[in-house]
Design goal:
It contains two helices and 39 strands. The chain is an all-beta fold and 542 residues long. The strands form eight sheets. Strands 24, 26, 27, 29, 34, 35, 36, 37 and 39 form a nine-stranded antiparallel sheet that branches. An eight-stranded antiparallel sheet has the order 4-25-28-38-30-31-32-33, with no helix packed on it. It has a four-stranded antiparallel sheet with strand order 2-3-5-6, with no helix packed on it.
Length: 542
């Protein structure tokens, strides 16, 4: 969860998988060798990271010929995004498992705030017996919630809330349809759920991490060839695995999978956490993530083989996680996936799943209808308290976001624009005061280590605008390993852009966990009633 030299776990900082088919052939066995084609010398290659966007705490499964990838979102809503792929390399958005963060008023920015809480490491599984998808995650160390859907696109609905916080949980659907959950921080436990998944039947501690290792968390739970495996991370530089030949409650034997392994992203951290997945042909792969701030945590993929006695081994390139590997041997995809960059004109009447709000939105104050209309939803001088700020992940290693904004319906005191949003933020946008509208660049929006606002920002530059329409642009360099610059510019014709303000320094500390995002906002400082319309959003790379 942190940089290599940090020994803090997520729990320390913030509080001061489905199952695989039983009997799946392991590579190395005769059945697997017969089924798994060897990559040829001319096989296509893929590069790491497979996706340069912030998708951490990975769970990954395959259902038929389709792969699904679930991730953390913390205070962003909807939560727990699901990505779809047909080849493990090219991914698109499919939906979200948690439609709204209805876990208390703080997630509505109502008297309290939920920054760096919410959706942490959670689990996605498929249950063949009733053809349903299940998402499981704990919230605020209080309860564990399970959501379910007949399709990953939704609709998702809450199945249950269990009065036990399954921290960093992995959900296993066993071959006999029994539901098990592996969870915990250093002390690892296994719970059995009722057949309907609504209640806990029993729970038992199965492993205590040796002090020589420190912390293990981030459970993923598998049954492979009759053995039970709990895949665990040592944040943020190691990966271990527990194996039981005697059932889901152990006893378990521990083996190290990796430690201080050189990663494939220059300036980034050690690949860790994430999950294992088996292709249709029987080959195995490990999707991990690397810390890559200021952009967040990004996925990297490597092939895995197994020893004859059933332990996974990552395939390395010159002693390191490879910058590239032969592409997984999978059937031809039925179609190309939608690109993660490009243009959104907000067609239709719903937001696409690539968008997530900063906390839950006030749904009475926004709409989509061939454009995104944002009415002011909050009267505040602090962007971190403003509701209905809409965010989009930054594409790395560098990218540019541009919005076309109609500001003709703004009212005095309103602030609208495009931000680089994190615990230290800056923005370009419009201020309307005394009947006059200016385009401004504002920096100095800051939080302390408890995520309380310490700075609401100051103007660094401004210019007059007129005509009711403007294009706003933010460019972000999120190459990891150092603080990086973000810059802002504007245009009155959509073609000629004028730089505004100094470069903004995006910090690369890990403790906010989520990386920087592009964020579209509109809030009032005097009274509600104003609005803006975003006609177009474009995410582009050099």
């Amino acid at each position: 969860m942190s940089w290599l030299h940090q020994e803090h776990t997520r729990r320390n900082v913030l509080t001061a998988a489905t199952g695989l088919t039983a009997g799946a052939a392991l590579p190395g066995t005769a059945a697997a060798q017969a089924a798994t084609p060897m990559p040829s010398a001319v096989a296509a290659q893929y590069g790491n990271p497979v996706l340069w966007q912030d998708f951490a705490d990975i769970d990954i499964i395959r259902v038929g010929d389709t792969y699904y990838y679930s991730a953390s979102t913390m205070h962003y809503s909807p939560g727990a995004p699901i990505l779809r792929s047909y080849d493990l390399v090219n991914w698109e958005f499919a939906g979200h498992s948690v439609p709204v963060l209805d876990f208390g008023a703080k997630y509505d920015l109502n008297g309290a705030r939920g920054y760096v809480r919410g959706i942490w490491a959670s689990s996605l599984a498929y249950r063949p017996s009733n053809r349903s998808y299940l998402w499981l995650g704990q919230i605020d160390f209080a309860k564990t919630y399970i959501y379910t859907a007949a399709a990953v696109e939704g609709p998702w609905s809450r199945l249950t809330a269990i009065d036990n916080a399954y921290y960093d949980a992995g959900l296993l659907v066993d071959s006999d349809d029994t539901l098990y959950v592996a969870y915990g921080n250093s002390t690892i436990s296994v719970a059995q759920l009722s057949p309907d998944g609504r209640t806990q039947v029993r729970t038992q501690q199965v492993f205590t991490t040796p002090s020589s290792i420190g912390t293990l968390e981030g459970s993923r739970f598998y049954k492979i060839n009759g053995n039970y495996y709990i895949f665990l991370t040592r944040p943020a530089n190691g990966q271990y695995i527990l194996k039981s030949t005697s059932g889901p409650f152990g006893p378990y034997t521990l083996r190290q999978v990796l430690l201080d392994l050189r990663g494939p992203v220059s300036g980034g951290g050690v690949p860790h956490q994430g999950g294992l997945v088996q292709t249709q042909s029987g080959a195995w792969h490990y999707m991990a993530f690397v810390d890559a701030y200021p952009g967040g945590r990004i996925p990297v993929l490597a092939p895995v083989t197994w020893t004859s006695d059933g332990w996974p081994v990552i395939q390395l390139v010159n002693g390191a996680w490879g910058a590239s590997y032969p592409s997984p041997a999978v059937p031809a995809p039925p179609r190309q996936v939608a690109p993660m960059t490009g243009v959104d004109t907000f067609d239709g009447t719903a937001l696409k799943p690539k968008w997530e709000w900063n906390h839950n939105p006030d749904n009475s104050k926004w709409s989509v209808n061939n454009g995104l209309t944002l009415q002011t939803a909050t009267v505040t001088g602090d962007l971190y308290w403003a509701r209905n700020t809409l965010t989009h992940r930054i594409q790395g290693p560098t990218s540019t976001a541009t919005i076309q904004l109609d500001y003709s319906a703004m009212r005095d005191g309103d602030r609208a624009g495009l931000a680089l949003l994190r615990d230290s933020s800056a923005w370009i946008g419009l201020k309307r005061d005394g009947g006059t509208t200016r385009v401004v660049m504002v920096n100095g929006l800051t939080m302390d280590s408890n995520w309380n606002t310490t700075g609401t920002g100051a103007e660094a530059a401004s210019a007059g605008v007129s005509g009711g329409r403007v294009w706003l642009r933010a460019t972000a360099d999120i190459r990891p390993g150092a603080a990086r610059p973000g810059t802002f510019s504007y245009s009155t014709d959509g073609t000629n852009f004028i730089r505004l303000g100094p470069a903004f320094t995006m910090g690369n500390d890990w403790r906010f966990f989520m990386g920087y995002r592009y964020a579209i906002f509109n809030h009032a400082t005097q009274a509600l009633g104003g609005s803006v319309k975003v006609a177009r959003f474009e995410l582009s790379t050099p």
